[in-house]
Amino acid sequence: MLSGLITLALTFTGFTLIALSMDKHHAQIIGSEINPKLRPAFMFFGWVLLIVSAVPCVQQYKISIGLSAWFGCMSVSGSLLVLMLAYTPKKVFAGAAGAVPFAALIFLIQVFL
């Protein structure tokens, strides 16, 4: 169960980074134009987080069910991001910034339990 929370946090942050690499969403979230030099970095680290987010699910549930759980977590976090972009775009950055320490805390709890 805890691996699902880690995966949700990482996928939400990954999708947020990918959204920050786009002009419209960057202006919605941050309120300014994107620096063209930062665009590839946002895209790269967003994809890295999405790929890394599969690891907790695959470790807990093995490859077949783990990948299905990972896609489910991606659907939930993607839907949450879409709703936040529509209704509260300024809170997306705070949610993504808080999701990474939350994932680290849950990982530490899972390791020591």
Automatic annotation (TrEMBL):
TM helices/strands, residue ranges: 6-22, 42-61, 67-85, 92-112
Signal peptide: none
Keywords, comma-separated and alphabetical: Membrane, Transmembrane, Transmembrane helix
Pfam families linked: DUF3325
Protein name in UniProt: DUF3325 domain-containing protein
